[in-house]
Design brief:
The complex is a heterodimer of chains A (338) and B (583). By secondary structure, chain A is mainly α. Chain A has a domain at 17-170. Chain A has helices spanning 17-27, 29-39, 42-64, 69-73, 77-88, 95-109, 123-134, 149-157, 173-182, 187-190, 201-217, 224-243, 251-255, 260-267, 278-298, 305-322. In chain A, α3 (42-64) runs antiparallel to α5 (77-88), α11 (201-217) runs parallel beside α14 and α15 (278-298) packs antiparallel against α16 (305-322). Chain A starts with 16 loop residues before the first helix and ends in a 16-residue tail after the last helix. Among the domains of chain B are: 1-30 and 124-290, NADH-ubiquinone oxidoreductase 51kDa subunit (Rossmann fold); 486-575, no CATH class. Chain B is built from 16 helices and 19 strands. Chain B has helices at 132-141, 181-188, 190-204, 218-231, 250-258, 278-289, 320-326, 384-388, 395-403, 407-412, 423-427, 434-491, 496-510, 513-520, 522-542, 558-577, and strands spanning 5-6, 14-15, 33-35, 41-45, 55-56, 63-64, 69-72, 81-82, 87-96, 104-112, 167-172, 208-214, 236-241, 273-277, 296-302, 310-315, 336-339, 346-347, 361-365. A six-stranded mixed sheet of chain B has the order 3-16-15-19-17-18. In chain B, α2 (181-188) packs parallel to α4. Classes of the chains: A mainly alpha (338), B alpha/beta (583). The complex binds iron/sulfur cluster (2 copies).
Chain lengths: 338, 583
């Protein structure tokens, strides 16, 4: 059915898909800035390459599927997908990593299912997981400290291999914790530095938290998913930390490291693939939080946001069917006072 | 249900909250009511509301007076149409009318003679002396319908049947942007509204009246409070409610004022409440006490496309173009004319359609004020629609299934609890015309149910016919057998006893089994009853505004009568669902 209509309501509608996505992109700025400050210009290059790859792929897919270009190219969703994948990549990853991530996100995560609105999985996380599985080494090239422009360019475009970068790369705090714990060190010994020490991931997470709160305030996202996800992660961390503080990091560490905040406010809140009822959102978010902890603690990957989100995406139809809100006049019906 | 909150200046009554809703820019004028000059030509559609259209009782060439019946009620959910001024009937023909479908309908066309001579009416000194039936008949004969927009015949809602009513809610919320006629009526006719409230309370047996008014109408609130004080009507209260669309929806207003929810598929009657629009209360009063039929109403002619937005007292049947002219004309050529408010009104096909009883607002929107005509994007499941749905529905799921043609699934998501308020479509970032999809789905489901009923009826006829043929066949066989037996008996030597036995046998054979089953088998009877109930339910659910309801039912057929009643109830409910309806 065409959308062109004279049907009520007649008033102009303020929000648009593009508007919402632009808002989300704006909200990414503080966290992104912290990452650039922490890790160097590579972050921005990753985003740029990834966004470009996503846009070109989006256009190609729309062409192939015989869809009109203009409304979909202007909806900003491909740009957001690109930006999110770009943010998930280590700053020294070669350029083709970003390209492959963007292309797989858009093709496998979005258009194979019918494009915008029909994808059951979060496209950005599909793209990231493809990379994680196919190029595990390249995805560990996190720098200890800010890489200078020359090194970055050499690593991203000069074909400098992973081994050549050993001098400047190191494990992220989550990686370090994992490795340390597997070597039977205690949390305190294994932890490289506090998350808020200079170069700490805490600042990055704080940046994304700030952007996320702004989005809730501007009604770009609802509070349920982020709050529930952080609660899930926090509660799991608290319980295990109370049980054995030597073997388990404290809740603050978990909430402020890795992709916790980025995931809670920007990734898990992808509307298309997430739960859509208020109670469904709570369960969806909480589930992701719990899964993130389980994967961080016992899984094969340092961070669990991507897998947590994708796993919970699978439960969405179930959640939406069984956790509907109460309809007016159904169930509890009003009775006269007397 | 809501958090209780308190608001208002006087008694600080407790208020409840309804879920969802929107704060919309109000754009309301606060203008005094201005009477329009008499139009030259007036057009009276025979169908002015849900239910059966009226039947013309005048012919082309007839002279009529103001207030004279020109078309009489036909069926239960039906009211007569009156000439709104004196003049001559010049045509009874198809004319474009104000209906979302943009179709034409039969209308009586009247040329005014400019004298505006009134037909004699009768007045009533003391309405309490009247039988309730008589009271309802007066209201019905005066053609009074809900003036909030749904135009449901008011006399039906003066009849609570077996329900026990404690509260009359008068709806003065008027929540849709731009519409301002109720505020004007409350400010200028408060005394009649309060008296009307007494009359309706008397009719339905209510103990108290709550007049719910949004806090953005201080003039109406003050005037009504003053009138209540002057009449010392201690059983009538004005309660100020927060301005939030769709506060004026019957369900939402009742929820805000009393905390009660009308059960799904139910009526306000079910929770002891009767709800009328404020202007309707005034019209009911004038109809009963002054014998004034409904021949005029107040209409807000407004919008950025109108030069002088006004509240006009308009003779029913006046063409919309005359209304626009009386409000200074259009500010821009090609402005969109909407009948009703911007959230629930519908675009008029042209300006020649007449104003009818349901017309509360004519809104002219310039191209810049309406949503741009652009294709919708896919639903991104953002849930913004569910956040604002006052019915607690999941508009995105409704849309998903409606779009896929899975109408049974839309019913699982409670499609029929949707009040078509348009909040969801207003916030949808994908600009999906959601309400249009829901209306389409509802229409399809009704059509499907009608088809099914038809098919069921056909099958029943077919089965009945088969049974009849079988019976005839059996009778023939029996007759043959009897003959044979008689012959044999004769052959055997004329044994009268054997003859009798054979005859009895034959008779027994001939008695069709199916008949006895139908009459004295309790299970079959129960089954038939259940079927009748089911049919009734289906019919009730399938009632479509245009469907003639009660008049189809022969008077002496209880099932048909029940069906008609159910239909009427359903129709009532549908009209009730509309915000700003006087329900
Ligand atoms: S507001 Fe529109 S896009 Fe968002 S969930 Fe509802 S229908 Fe879908
Ligand atoms: S139109 Fe229906 S679905 Fe949409 S907000 Fe209103 S009641 Fe809910």
């Amino acid at each position: 059915m065409s959308g062109v209509t004279l049907s009520s309501p007649h008033l102009p509608v303020q929000p648009s898909v593009g508007g919402v996505m632009r808002g989300v992109l704006l909200a990414l700025i503080p966290g992104t800035a912290a990452m650039v400050w922490l890790l160097g210009i590579g972050v921005l290059i990753n985003i740029a390459v990834c966004v470009a790859a996503c846009l070109v792929t989006e256009a190609a897919c729309l062409r192939l599927r015989d869809r009109p270009l203009s409304p979909f190219m202007r909806d900003w969703t491909a740009i957001l997908t690109g930006a999110l994948i770009g943010l998930a990549l280590p700053p020294l990853a070669p350029w083709w990593i970003a390209v492959i991530g963007g292309v797989s996100g858009i093709v496998l995560g979005k258009h194979l299912y019918g494009g915008l609105g029909f994808n059951p999985f979060n496209p950005a996380m599909v793209g990231y997981v493809v990379l994680l599985i196919s190029f595990p080494t390249e995805l560990t090239l996190w720098t200890v400290e800010r890489a200078d422009v020359a090194t970055t360019l050499a690593a991203q475009f000069g074909g400098l291999g992973a081994s050549a970068l050993d001098a400047v790369t190191a494990a992220s705090p989550l990686d370090g914790l994992r490795t340390g714990l597997s070597q039977n060190l205690t949390v305190d010994e294994a932890r490289i530095a506090s998350v808020f020490a200079s170069g700490g991931w805490g600042w990055v997470n704080l940046g994304f938290l700030l952007g996320g709160l702004w989005m809730i305030w501007r009604k770009l996202i609802t509070w349920q998913i982020p709050v529930a996800m952080l609660a899930g992660l926090g509660i799991m961390a608290l319980v295990f930390w109370l049980i054995d503080g030597d073997r388990h990091a404290d809740p603050l560490f978990h909430l402020m490291s890795g992709a916790a905040m980025l995931g809670a406010f920007f990734i898990a809140t992808d509307p298309v693939s997430g739960a859509t009822t208020p109670r469904g959102k709570l369960v969806f978010g909480f589930g992701i939080g719990v899964l993130v902890y389980l994967i961080r603690q016992w899984g094969g990957y340092p961070d669990g946001v991507a897998f947590g989100v994708l796993l919970m995406n699978m439960t969405v139809p179930l959640l939406d069917t069984h956790l509907q809100p109460r309809v007016y006049g159904q169930g509890k019906a009003g009775r006269p006072d007397r | 249900m809501g958090r209780p909150q308190t608001i208002g200046s006087q008694a600080k009554p407790q208020l409840w909250d309804f879920p969802g809703g929107l704060h919309l820019p109000e754009h309301k004028i606060d203008a005094p009511i201005r009477s329009m000059p008499l139009p030259k030509t007036l057009v009276f559609p025979l169908a002015q509301h849900i239910g059966a259209p009226a039947k013309p009782v005048v012919e082309v060439g007839d002279k009529v007076l103001r207030g004279q019946v020109i078309a009489e009620a036909d069926g239960y959910v039906s009211t007569p149409v009156h000439a709104s001024t004196s003049g001559k009937v010049i045509a009874i023909e198809e004319r474009p009318v104000a209906h979302p479908s943009g179709l034409s309908a039969r209308c009586i066309v009247l040329a005014s003679d400019g004298r505006d001579k009134a037909a004699p009416g009768r007045t009533v000194e003391d309405f309490k002396a009247l039988e309730l039936v008589e009271l309802r008949n007066i209201v019905r004969d005066a053609g009074v319908v809900g003036l909030g927009g749904a135009a449901f015949p008011s006399f039906i809602k003066l009849n609570p049947g077996s329900a026990r009513i404690d509260t009359l809610v008068l709806n003065g919320a008027e929540c849709e942007p731009y519409i301002a006629c109720d505020q004007a009526v409350m400010a200028e006719e408060p005394a009649d509204i309060v008296r009307g409230a007494q009359l309706i309370m008397h009719a339905v047996g209510a103990r108290q009246t709550i007049i719910g008014i949004e806090d953005n109408k201080p003039r109406g609130i003050a005037a009504l409070r003053k009138a209540i004080g002057e009449q010392q009507a201690s059983n009538v209260r004005v309660v100020v409610v927060p301005s939030r669309y769709p506060q004026g929806g019957e369900k939402q207003l009742i929820q805000t004022l009393t905390g009660r929810e009308i059960p799904s598929e139910g009526l306000p009657l079910d929770i002891g409440i009767v709800c009328h629009n404020v202007a309707t209360a005034s019209a009911v009063w004038r109809a009963v006490v002054y014998g004034e039929p409904l021949t005029e109403r107040v209409i807000t002619v407004t919008g950025p496309g109108i030069k002088t937005p006004s509240n006009l007292r308009v003779r029913l049947g006046t063409p919309v173009e005359d209304l626009v002219a009386a409000a200074g004309g259009l500010a821009e050529q090609g402005a969109r004319l909407v009948m009703g408010g911007p959230m629930m009104g519908f675009a008029l096909p042209n300006a020649r359609v007449p104003a009818v009883k349901a017309t509360n607002c004519i809104l002219a929107l310039r191209q810049a004020d309406v949503r741009p005509e652009e294709p919708a994007m896919p639903c991104i499941r953002c849930g913004a629609c569910a956040e604002v749905c006052p019915a607690g529905l999941l508009p995105q799921q409704l849309y998903w299934h409606a779009r896929a043609g899975e109408f049974d699934k839309t019913q699982n998501y409670n499609l029929f609890d949707c009040i078509e308020c348009g909040c969801c479509a207003q916030v949808c970032p994908s600009h999906i015309p959601l309400v249009q999809h829901y209306r389409f789905a509802k229409t399809e489901i009704w059509a499907e149910e009608r088809e099914k009923r038809k098919a069921d009826a056909a099958r029943e006829r077919h089965e009945f016919r088969n049974a009849r043929l079988e019976r005839i066949d059996a009778e023939k066989k029996a007759a043959r057998a009897a003959k044979k037996a008689a012959l044999q008996a004769k052959k055997a030597g004329g044994d009268p006893v054997g003859d009798a036995i054979a005859k009895a046998k034959a008779a027994k054979q001939a008695a069709p089994e199916s008949d006895s089953k139908a009459t004295d088998d309790p299970i079959a009877a129960a089954k038939a009853k259940a079927q009748a109930r089911k049919a009734q339910k289906a019919q009730a659910e399938g009632a479509v505004p245009s469907a003639a309801a009660a008049q189809e039912a022969p008077k002496d057929d209880p099932v048909a009568a029940a069906l008609a009643k159910a239909k009427a109830a359903k129709a009532a409910k549908q009209s009730d669902d509309k915000p700003d309806s006087d329900a």
